[in-house]
Amino acid sequence: MSPKRLANPLHGILLIVLFSFSACYIADFQWVKHLSFSPLIVGIVLGMIYANSLRNHLPKTWVPGIQFCTKQVLRTGIVLYGFKLTFQSVIDIGGAALLIDAVVVAFTILLGAGLGRLLKMDRDTALLTSIGSSICGAAAVLGAEPVVKSQPYKAAVAVSTVVIFGTLSMFLYPALFRAGMLDLTTEQMGLFTGATLHEVAHVVGAGNAMGQAISDPAIIVKMIRVMMLAPVLVILSIILSRREAAAGQTGQKRKITIPWFAFLFLAVIGFNSLHLLPSGVVSAINSLDTFLLTMAMTALGAESSFEKFKKAGARPFLLAALLYAWLFFGGYWLVKGMTAWMA
After folding, report:
1. Helices 186-196/95-118 angle, 10° precision
2. Which of 12, 49, 176, 279 has a CA 20 to 30 Å removed from the CA of 325?
3. Whole-structure pTM over 0.90, yes or no?
4. How far apart are CA 267 and CA 261, in angstroms?
5. What is the pLDDT of residues 288-319, one digit of tens each?
6. Rounded CA separation 27/23 (Å)
7. DSSP string, 156-222
8. Is 266 left (phi over 0), alpha (psi -120 to 50) or beta?
9. Domain boundaries of the chain, sorted by first residue
10. DSSP label at residue 58
């Protein structure tokens, strides 16, 4: 790539870096600390302010740099987050996490497909919205798009709906937990957060706002959901191929998107479990990781303009709202019941 072509993406990345430094500075204010707002939450607020004000006046060629931060930088941050965990912490979560995630993912997709038919929605849009709500938000939608073979705007609609409710939850969950309105223990809140929030970034943001005791299990539970994307896409590909065959259509080979960063995350946890690095080095990595995740959250906010939300339309928004209600209330009682049953 020539220096000229590389410059424009770098402009977008440097813009996010600047906002992220500002987020870290603002998060250090005493009144911000009192609100339990981490740099990640401050970052997404700054990003949303930018998305609905200055962004329309800046070159569109900066967008790839911003999107780079929502994907590659986020995944790098999640992989490095493994240095805050060990396999002992994963074992401590127990089998409840796997069972809860499996129920959440399977039921959300089936419920979304059924509600989509009742709402007389386009099948592809309903399916993409359901997968985004059930697994990992925008990343799941983008992973499912080549399997579903939908038109690009349908994926954009699905992404916009899950981003709305995921962002709402990132602020709502910590507020409800701090107010004592959720009758959940610290461990249960981690399970609930990881099993029901949409984006990995949203789980990281909400978890950080509630403390590491909640953040660590929430991230692990969420990453289990992320890893479920691969088998879900395989099953989805088989089902859609059979439907095409039954309809007399000739299908091409479907490319399955595997979330490799989730497996790298587990590899880092394994390495960290060996305690080979000095504590000072691990502390430095964790500081870098916080900044990378702040960049990802800021970039996510920068992609959340009100215009995108308007383009989603009423029915996809209604479907996402119904799925959100299931994730919140159903997930709450599922966590309560499953942890009590396995106690």
Report:
1. 40
2. 49
3. no
4. 10
5. 998 998 898 888 788 777 776 666 568 888 99
6. 6
7. HHHHHHHHHHHHHHHHHHHHHHHTT-S---HHHHHHHHHHH-SSHHHHHHHHHHH-HHHHHHHHHHH
8. alpha
9. 3-342
10. S
